[in-house]
Amino acid sequence: xxxxxxxxxxxxxxxxxxxxxxxxxxxxxxEENLSGxxxxxxxTSLKDEFTSLKSxxxxxxxxxxxxxxCASVRKMSAKEASSCAVSVVSIYGEMLRxxxxxxxxxxxxxxxxxxxxPPFLVKSVS
Length: 126
Fold this sequence. Notes:
The protein is built from five helices and no strands. The N and C termini lie far apart (50 Å).
């Protein structure tokens, strides 16, 4: 995959699909895999949605030694946590679609170039 963060999103989605309540899975997944990704390292098409997700995941002021992610998830309803989980899956899906589309374009370019015979290989008939 061309995106350097593909593995992080893949791991995140696997955690989100696992056992436990959605808030616990979201907290673990985001802290372990996505919290350290700088927005500017994502493709432009994903940046806004990821920035919005990070804002939702860090919007509560932490207290008593907990981090902003933990505080934010603690204050979320199960519905809000589910919405954040859906955003993660949506971003990952878009990442996969854009990578697949790029691979199809590259495959087509390679096939088209394979059909072109360089002029120096063409024997002239006189």
